[in-house]
Amino acid sequence: MANSATDARTKAQEAMGKGHEAAGKVHEAAGKAQDAAGRAVEAGKEAAGVVVEKAKEAVGDAVRTGQHAAQHAAQAVGNAAETATSKVGEGIQGLGQTVREHGPGNGMLGSATESVASTLEQGGRYLQQEGLSGAADDLTNLIKRNPIPALLVGIGIGFLLARVTRS
Questions:
Q1: Which residue from 45, 54, 95, 150 puts its CA 20 to 30 A from 60's CA?
Q2: What total of structural domains would you count in the chain?
Q3: What is the pLDDT of residues 97-151, one digit of tens each?
Q4: How many CB atoms are located within 10 Å of the residue 132 CB?
Q5: Category of 107 on φ-ψ map: left (φ > 0), alpha (ψ -120 to 50) or beta
Q6: CA 4 to CA 10: how far, in whole Å?
Q7: Domain of residue 88, residue span
Q8: What global pTM score does this model have?
Q9: Considering only CA atoms, which of 156, 154, 128, 161 is closest in space to residue 139?
């Protein structure tokens, strides 16, 4: 019986040794799993960082593309306005020539016709040469040089527009 107790003790010690060995292996496997999880988290962070950077680049590219498109559209509108202004200038100049050709040539009415025709032709040439931007610059300068008369003219135009729209 003493022999069987010793055998049992020996087997129990062997089992405990194997249990400790298994626990060590489990502990080692857990450490490796933890290391792998840490590496996976770091890789995920890096991947997320790359995705965020790519998204930022894509948004930046989209914004730049939108800005370029808006600039081109504004430029096209500006060019169209300048072309239209030039065409209006041509029309006004042509109207001045028509007035000169078909109006009376002498007397008081002839002088008035000549004056109107010259003014129309000069206005037409001005619009053709200066365009819309040149006219806007000249108007701005005129208002800066004469602010009070410009204000009074603006009030008068506003009053007339109010009267016309109310009727």
A1: 45
A2: 1
A3: 888 888 887 888 888 888 888 988 998 888 888 888 888 898 899 999 999 999 9
A4: 16
A5: left
A6: 10
A7: 2-166
A8: 0.50
A9: 154
